[in-house]
Specification:
Layout: H1 2-28, H2 31-38, H3 42-50, H4 54-57, E1 63-68, H5 70-74, H6 80-86, H7 88-96, E2 99-100, E3 112-115, E4 121-127, E5 130-133, E6 136-145, E7 148-153
Length: 160
């Protein structure tokens, strides 16, 4: 009886350790790897690579990234994404407009103008339980990464 109980206890401890380790590995992913792992940011990741921002967004941070989904990029006029992928400077300007140089969880978001990494401000509003960034709706909040947080948006932000 002792052997059986001990075996179950050892199995439970081993399984618990694996879950804790898996959680630590998931949390250890940076902004870029988290976006890659999500699977719905293929266009964003391609753009980050084309703009030469991979090392920056894998860096220490902290960053808050308002990440447009593949569907958000699909809403742009035909040829826009392809054109941006060929214009590294303009692409980098647009992508850094989606990044705030701080880690801001949803509970800490305050409405108002927020300065982005590209130097321009985005307007954050919250009404009726809906958070907006300029004209984009935040659809998912608080996707944690080792160097910041991702908030998913449904529209690509274009600096004015």
């Amino acid at each position: 009886m002792k052997f059986s109980l001990r075996s179950k206890l050892v199995s439970f401890v081993a399984a618990s350790s694996m879950l804790v380790a898996a959680g630590a590995l998931a949390q250890a992913k940076d902004i870029v790897d988290t976006a890659i792992g999500a699977g719905s940011f293929k266009t964003l990741v391609t753009a980050i690579q084309a703009a030469g921002l991979v090392d920056t967004l894998k860096g220490k941070g902290p960053f808050t990234v308002f990440a447009p989904t593949d569907e958000a990029f699909a809403k742009l006029p035909p040829g826009t994404v392809e054109g941006l992928l060929k214009d590294k400077a303009k692409l980098a300007s647009i992508l850094t407009y989606h990044v705030v140089p701080a880690s801001v969880m949803a509970k800490d978001v305050k409405p108002g103008d927020v300065k982005t990494v590209n130097g321009k401000s985005i307007k954050v509003t919250a009404t009726g339980g809906k958070v907006m960034v300029n004209d984009a709706t935040v659809t998912t909040t608080d996707v944690a990464a080792s160097n910041g947080v991702i908030h998913v948006i449904d529209t690509v932000l274009l600096p004015k």
